[in-house]
């Protein structure tokens, strides 16, 4: 069951997300429980550690889309900022954007764990 404060705690537009999942809280919950297994986050972390900028761009872009589908706007924006930093040749901007992404990712995982 999705916790009652799930949407507000993560600043999610509940109406949009529920519409995306056909109004089915059960379907949304089923997909949310799969989110922690998505390989985009570990790929992003590895790419950053290895300073593999093309892979940082790919993983951040993928995670941006996944996050947007769930209404995780803050995570999606942090990933978009990482993509923009790589594309603009500003790798020095990656640590700040990654820090915001990590904070959001961990908050999301904590809320999902409550289900």
Q: What's the SSE blueprint?
A:
Layout: H1 6-9, H2 14-20, H3 25-32, H4 40-50, H5 53-70, H6 73-87, H7 94-113
Helix pairs in contact: 4-5, 5-6, 6-7
Descriptive account of the structure:
- The chain has helices at 6-9, 14-20, 25-32, 40-50, 53-70, 73-87, 94-113.
- The protein has seven helices and no strands.
- The longest helix is centred in the last third of the chain and has 20 residues, at 94-113.
- Helices cover 72% and strands 0% of the residues.
- With 115 residues, the protein is an all-alpha fold.
- Helix 4 (40-50) runs antiparallel to helix 5 and helix 5 runs antiparallel to helix 6 (73-87).
Give the mean pLDDT. Answer: 97
Q: What's the overall geometry?
A: elongated
Instruction: Say how many strands there are.
Output: 0
The major β-sheet equals:
none
What proportion of the residues form beta strands (DSSP E)? under 5%
- pLDDT < 50 runs, ≥5 residues: none
In brief, what are we looking at here?
With 115 residues, this protein is mainly alpha-helical.
Features:
7 helices, 72% helix, mainly alpha
